[in-house]
Amino acid sequence: MMISGQQPNLSTLCAAFAALLKEYRGTALRINPDHVAVQRGGTLLIAPMRAGKVDLGATMELDPNSLVAATGDWSKERAAVTFKAVTSPEFVALDPANLCDFNVAALRFEFEGDNIQNPTVSECGRFAESPEYYGFGELHGGDWSLGLDDGDRLQVDRHYKTFSRIDALGEVVAHVTISAIVFDCEK
After folding, report:
1. Sheet with 144-147, side-by-side order of all strands
2. Mean pLDDT over the full length of the chain
3. Which alpha helices (DSSP H) does 24-159 contain, by range?
4. Which residues contact residue 176 at a Cβ distance below 8 angstroms, ignoring those fewer than 6 apart?
5. Which residues touch 106 (CB under 8 Å, ≥6 apart)?
6. What is the pLDDT of residue 8?
7. pTM, full prediction
8. How far is the C-alpha of 158 from the C-alpha of 148, rounded, in Å?
9. Which in 94, 116, 120, 124 has the greatest CB count within 10 A?
């Protein structure tokens, strides 16, 4: 994507971010070391990066005001870094390995009358279990997926490290690192 003429203003930068993200669906655009731009449900958002992962649970709509708030002072150096996001874009795949935990309560599902929080252990939580036990099907590549009645699907990665809920548009709407799951009885 090219922007001709003078360095763009904040509105032009936001429009450029949206255009890049429309072209590269399923990714976030790094706009500085601490933030990315994402497009979700047709809305341009800004999300913080925490320990190298995108925090989709702390997004806000991206507009010139939120861009200034996220980047701090709009110094020449900060403007140059943000402008570079358009001229030399760096994308981050919005796959489970690159996401912080968020909206964890949406990952529960019902199985034979039990409320399941972790599809890699038995209902009692004491024994290892395959997601296949709970009705998940193995996808090409080894990930596990279970379709839900509302059109969403639950997905466990092939290494049993992450558990995600993905909506009908293919966007991750909930995510947890499996080792971080805390059962209700442990709270």
Report:
1. 137-138, 144-147, 153-156, 162-166, 172-177
2. 86
3. 64-71, 76-87
4. 101, 104, 107, 162, 163, 164
5. 165, 173, 174
6. 57
7. 0.79
8. 19
9. 94
Model pLDDT for residues 111-151, shown as the tens digit of each residue:
999 999 999 999 888 899 999 999 999 998 899 999 999 99
Asked if 85 and 14 count as a contact pair (C-beta separation under 8 A), the reply is no
Task: Enumerate residues 6+ apart whose C-beta is below 8 A from 76.
Answer: none
**Amino acid letter at 32?**
N
CATH topology assigned to domain 104-186: Arylsulfatase, C-terminal domain (3.30.1120)
* Cβ-Cβ contacts under 8 Å for 82 (sequence gap 6 or more): 13, 31, 32, 67, 71
DSSP state letter for 1? -
Residue 19 CB neighbours (<10 A): 14
End-to-end CA distance of the chain: 49
Beta bridge partners of 174: 165
Q: Which two tokens stand for residue 24?
A: 């590269």
CB-side neighbour CA atoms (13 Å) of 168? 4
Q: Which residue has the tokens 């990714």?
A: 27
Closest by Cα among 115, 96, 94 to 38 = 94
pLDDT over threshold 60, residue 187: no
Q: Which two tokens stand for residue 114?
A: 């039990």
| 131 within 8 A of 119, measured Cβ to Cβ | yes
